[in-house]
Design a protein that fits this description.
By secondary structure, this protein is an alpha/beta fold. It folds into two domains: 10-126 and 210-333, TIM Barrel (Alpha-Beta Barrel), CATH 3.20.20.370; 131-202. Helices cover 42% and strands 11% of the residues. It contains eleven helices and ten strands. The chain has helices at 10-25, 54-67, 73-82, 100-111, 131-141, 170-185, 189-202, 215-223, 243-261, 281-289, 322-333; strands at residues 32-37, 40-41, 52-53, 69-70, 89-96, 117-120, 227-230, 267-269, 294-296, 302-303. Strands 1, 4, 5, 6, 7 and 10 form a six-stranded mixed beta sheet that branches. α1 runs parallel beside α11 (322-333), α2 (54-67) runs parallel beside α4 and α9 packs parallel to α10. The chain is globular, with a radius of gyration of 20 Å. Keywords: Signal. One of its GO terms (biological process) is carbohydrate metabolic process. One of its GO terms (cellular component) is extracellular region.
Length: 338
């Protein structure tokens, strides 16, 4: 679909003017904002408050189309290195590979003439969901009341949290799901799966919908002009698995996706993405050896010519109003590198 005519609302005009002034001040070292999304929701979900619903995603994409210069990520990286970025340069990315990217986000991107990079895992291309979504759906369906969290292999400190760890309303379920997710994230994978199985049993073994992209969806995304990037097979915390395991996660994921898209993968995003916590220089070297051109963290802020090739920062769009969303991007673009 061709891009619609630019809007000329007051906010978009303000953002264009502000972004142009920022660009003039740092013409030789213009910076790039790379936004990160995960799931797009049909409607707001109290247990997924950090995820963007479809209506919010549409106004965000409209504002990007009207107020910024949205570039494909490979092109933006090349121009950043060459010093030829346009003012107000922004890229869009999605992590994990949720099917909502194809079913909900893609029509909106096409409506505004935008493209994105999707960093996809490959463990659930045929069916199933990632471990964090299994936890969420189990907590959603837990019966009300107190639980012996320690018996499930979870920390007793969980009971010291909001409402004493008692399952009741949506607020308590969100708190419990968040605590379990943060704890389980750094567990050895076999232990994590045991805890999830026990939690699901307490919840009556709920069926979890197939939430991830399938092969046909990945092909459809690429045919629509989007880039596919690597994100490991099972989304492990690379620093918490053995080197051989980490390398296999990186290489097998790259190979599987290249078989689908029929072209080399150029870009990689670290699972969870915190330097020194979720990955370290061992994994940076693995990414280079696997043949990737660049890799991305979750450090927030903007990228520039000073950004390390395999540790390029990206930021998540937390703001819930257009003015705060736009001003955050301007603040990031105004950053100065080393």
């Amino acid at each position: 679909m061709t891009r619609r005519a630019r809007g000329h609302g007051p906010l978009a005009l303000l953002l264009r003017l502000g972004g142009n002034l920022i660009a003039l001040a740092g013409r030789r070292r213009r910076r790039l904002c790379i936004l990160t999304y995960h799931r797009i929701l049909e409607r707001p979900d109290p247990l997924l408050e950090s995820e963007v619903d479809l209506a919010s995603f549409r106004w965000q994409m409209r504002l990007l189309a009207d107020g910024f210069n949205v570039l494909p990520l490979p092109e933006a990286l090349q121009r950043m290195r060459q010093g030829t970025l346009p003012p107000r340069a922004v890229c869009i990315s999605f992590d994990d590979g949720y099917r909502s990217v194809c079913e909900l986000a893609l029509p909106v991107l096409q409506e505004f003439g935008l493209t994105a990079t999707i960093f996809a895992t490959t463990a659930h291309l045929d069916d199933g969901s990632m471990w964090n979504d299994r936890i969420l759906e189990a907590v959603r369906r837990l019966p009300e009341g107190a639980f012996d969290w320690e018996a499930l292999g979870l920390p007793p400190a969980l009971a010291a949290g909001r409402k004493g760890g008692v399952v009741s309303d949506a607020e308590s379920r969100l708190h419990i799901a968040t605590v379990i997710n943060e704890y389980a994230k750094y567990m050895p994978p076999p232990e994590r799966l045991r805890v999830i199985a026990a939690l699901e049993q307490c919840a009556g073994n709920p069926d979890t919908a197939d939430l991830m992209l399938d092969r046909a969806m990945i092909v459809a995304l690429t045919r629509a002009g989007n880039e596919i990037g690597g994100h490991t097979v099972t989304h492990p915390i690379l620093s918490k698995v053995e080197d051989e395991h980490a390398l296999r996660e990186i290489v097998d994921n790259k190979h599987a996706l290249e078989q689908i898209v029929r072209q080399p993968l150029r870009l990689f995003a670290y699972p969870n993405g915190k330097a020194g916590v979720d990955y370290d220089m061992r994994h940076v070297r693995m990414i280079g050896a696997a043949g990737y051109d660049a890799a991305f963290t979750t450090a927030g802020g903007s990228a520039g010519p000073d950004s390390a090739r395999y540790e390029i920062p990206r930021g998540r769009p937390w703001d819930r109003t257009p003015i705060m969303f736009g001003l955050r991007l301007l603040r990031w673009l105004a950053q100065r590198g080393a």
